Structures are given as C-alpha cells and as structure tokens.
Amino acid sequence: MQRNYIQTREDKLPSTNPIKIQESTTSIETTAGQIIRRVFGILFYVHLILITILVIFLIIHGLLSNVHKHHFHPRKWFPPLLTSAASAGIVAFIWQWLTGYTHSTALKAAFWLSPLLTFAAGILLILIGSAGALAVGVIAVVSALILSLYACWVNPRFEYAQQILSVAMAFYPAKTVVLVILSILISTLYSCFLMSGIGGVTASRTSLDTFLISVILLSLAGTMHVIKNTLIVTISRVKFLQFACGADMDICAAFHDTIKYCMGSICIGSTLVPILGVIRGSARALKLIAGDRDKFLFSCADCYAGLASTLITYGNRWGFVYVGVYNKGFVQASTDAWRMFGMAGLETLIDSDLTGSFCFLFGVAGGAICSLISGTWALAIHENQATEVSIYAFLVGYFMCRVAMAWPQACVSAYYIAYAENPQNPQFDSTIPDRIQELQRYRV
C-alpha cells in the first residue's frame, strides 16, 4: 500500500512538467496559502531590486563624499574585505570537495577545526583592542570553548553521521556539483557587491550609517538563506525521487520548477527556520540551566520547551523536502514532515542527527578563516577599521560556506523523508534501523 502511494505521487511529478500543487482540505486555505506564498516571492524580488539601487547609490555617494573629506582610504578598506569574499568562495569550494570526496574527514574537520579557528579569530579581535573588538572577541573565545565541549559530547555519534552522509550522498549527478558551484559564484559576487555598499556607507559617514549597514547585512543574511534553501529544495527533490522510487530527474528541470513555483515557500521557510531554531536552542539551554533544583524556574523552562517543540512542528528544515517534491506551502510541508517522522518513530533519531550541526560548524570555520585573513590584513595596514572588516568578513564567510553545505543537507533530508514514507523500501539499507535499535538499547 505504501509503495503504491509513493508511486502514485511520483506519477504526478514527471521531470518535464511543473510540480503539481497538492490539494488542500478547503479551497479557501488553498487560495490563501497561494496568495501568501506569492506575496513572499514578490517581496523577495522587490527587495533585490531595492537593495541593488541602494547599494549603487551608496557606492557612488561614498566615493564622491570621500573626495572632499579624505578620511576614508578605499585602498586600505576594500582589498581586505573583498579578498575575504573571494577567500570565502575558495573555502566553500574546498569544503564542498572535501565533503563529496571523504565524508569522515569532512565531518571530523567541521567539529574539531571550527573551535580552533573560532578561538583564533577571537584572539585576533582581542588583540585589535577596541571596545567592540574586545566584546566580540570574548564572545568568540567563549563560543569556541562551547563548541569544543559540544564536539566531545557528540563524538559517539560520529560513526552514524558518517554512515548517513555516505549513503545519502551516493550516486549524485554531475550537474548537481555544477549547480552548487554556480550558486557559490553568485553568492561571492553578491557578497562583494554588498560589501562595496558598506564601504560607501563608511566613506560618507552620516547619521544613518548604523541603519544602512544593518539593512545591507540583513539583506546579505536573507538572500544567502534563500540561495541555500533553493539549493536544498532542488537537490532534495531529485534525491527523494531517487530514494523513494528509483527515478532519475534532471537537476536543471528541478531547478526550473523550484524557481518558478516554490520561491514563495522558500522565502517563508528562510524566515521561519532561523527564528524557530533560535527559540528551540534557547529553550534547550534554559532547561539545561534550570535542571530540577528550582521548581519555579524548572516550570518556566518546561513551558518554554513545550512551546518551542510545538513551534518547530510548523517550521523545520525537513519541510523543504516536501516543498520541492509536492510544492506544498512551507508550514504545511513542515507539519507533514514532522507527522511522518512521528509515524515512522524517527523523532529521537532526527533530533540527534548531526547534519545540521555539521553544516553550521563548517560555516563557523569558514567565517573564522575569512575573519583571520581580512582582520590580520586590516590590522597591519589600517588598525582603526580592523574591527568592522573582521566582523563583516566573518559573516560573508559563514553564509558562503552554508550555501556550499546545502548539498549534503539536502541529500540527508531527502533520505530521512523518503525512509519515513516507506521504511520497507528495498532501496534502503540497515543504517537507520540499526541506529534505532542502538538508541533503544541505550534507553533501556
């Protein structure tokens, strides 16, 4: 019965036709959902146009202002920061190659190098000596220590994470690599463009500097999330069909469908997932701090954790798979994915999955590398701007590496969703069942 269900859904998704929109329970919900998705998609494209106009204006205005004020030195400010964007692209390519070539080495590198590199970046910021650099540097050093402890804590899960990466990323078409490479190149150019805008703001020095820089950085974060999640939706659709039905779909056709039909859902998900991720992480931290010593604090932490668990049902990264496969709205896709995991008994397994941490730590490592390169350069030639350059370089490196890591994240997500829909599918090996039995033994 389950196999027939999947085959029926596959019949609705030929590679040459657009993704079929799944029927909702009521026409009102369908219409409302489509309107919301279309609005978010339009807003994203309008945002790109407006930020492009703003950045071009800021670059021109900054250069003209600097002619008269002479307080800004473009030759000292732009090379380190633009080099950081180029370095981020190179690091992203290396991470991508390393992950595709040797999963075990990539996994260990992410968990053990990221604390060291983050610590080094923190020390550099402390050496810069400004108040802002000192504050951020201390945060980076503390974060590095936390990441080290986390790596030690999850060390027993490494073997399973390596197995999942190995089986999920097997048999990928060459066009997938090309798509990821093109996405990295586009991200590099976009980052350089926005950093030039920040340079224009720095050169002009107006009362709106903080606001304008914040707008540009928010645009960087939002657009990078959309690029990353567009890759996840595209690649996960192709991999899901491969895992669930043994069907091959052209990645170009999947990408075309994603751009044409799924951008609204992707934009919604790109907004919700980071916010809900922070809420869930803070809930776990609060519950860990509360323990069971203070009944009042424990009660508040328990309520907050329950709220976070409820919210994550309506917005999680697994929903991107159903967005790509069935063109569902993101909230509905997330709800269906979580319900499917519950039916298959995979909640504990996916909750302890290291793929998300793996991709996040690679981003931290890439950000730290870019921060070290640009920060050291800026410190040597223009110490007054070393703090800003280091922070901007870190953000660029982080987001660029997250785009590069969309590939393994999409493959693993598609693998879990396809398994949850049909655990008896002969195309799956014993990796997940063996892990479930191992977790059950630990609980006993």
Automatic annotation (TrEMBL):
It comes from the Eukaryota. It is a multi-pass membrane protein. The chain crosses the membrane at residues 42-65, 77-98, 110-128, 134-155, 176-198, 210-227, 358-379, 391-418. Belongs to the CTL (choline transporter-like) family. It comes from Quercus lobata. This is Choline transporter-like protein. Its main location: membrane. One of its GO terms (molecular function) is transmembrane transporter activity. Keywords: Membrane, Transmembrane, Transmembrane helix. InterPro entries: Choline_transptr-like. Choline transporter. The keyword Nucleus does not apply. GO terms for cellular component: plasma membrane. It is found in: Cell membrane; Membrane.
